[in-house]
Write a structure and sequence with these properties.
- The protein has four helices and eight strands, in the order βαβαββααββββ.
- The chain is an alpha/beta fold.
- The chain has a single domain, classed as Rossmann fold.
- Strands 1, 2, 3, 4, 5, 6, 7 and 8 form an eight-stranded mixed β-sheet that branches.
- A hairpin with a 5-residue loop joins strand 3 (about 60-65) and strand 4 (about 70-75).
- It starts with a strand and ends with a strand.
Length: about 150
């Protein structure tokens, strides 16, 4: 699926479409620095009825948010992690296996370890200054072959 955003007002609709795309709750969010990954996740958080202020987890690595119905969701930024062993230190398995929504920016370091299905969200900037958001379903780690539905 592809969503094109021409201006900031399109974020709300895009956030809703992303949540409706799949019943999965794990989202790996890819994109260059400054393309709008955190801004998009903030818009998604509003659709999840988040009661906390949504801020970038760049320095904290992981933020936990509560919603009006007392559920929680997670926003991780793995940009500063350099070694896969650091994933254990931050309790990555705990975030992935709760069944709660989890959005991971800069997920390259973790993608080879994810064994559960997830949505890959890729944000690119077009030459017309539009944000192009591409959504793909992945079935998790498969050693024999890649099983994506692109």
């Amino acid at each position: 699926m592809e969503i094109i955003i021409s201006n900031i007002s399109g974020l709300d609709t895009a956030a809703k479409q992303i949540l409706e795309f799949s019943s999965l709750r794990l989202f790996l969010v890819y994109g260059e620095m400054g393309v709008g990954k955190t801004t998009l996740i903030k818009a998604i958080g509003k659709h999840l009825n988040t009661i906390d202020e949504i801020i970038s987890p760049t320095f904290a690595i992981a933020n936990v948010y509560e919603t009006r119905n007392r559920s929680r969701w997670y926003h991780l930024d793995l940009y500063r992690l350099k070694e896969p062993e650091e994933l254990m230190e931050i309790g990555m398995d705990d975030y992935l296996n709760t069944g709660n929504y989890c959005f991971i920016e800069w997920p390259e370091i973790v993608e080879g370890f994810i064994e559960i299905p997830y949505v890959k969200v890729t944000i690119t900037l077009s030459d017309k200054n539009q944000r192009i958001i591409t959504l793909n379903l992945f079935h998790g780690l498969k050693r024999d072959s890649e099983t994506s539905s692109e």
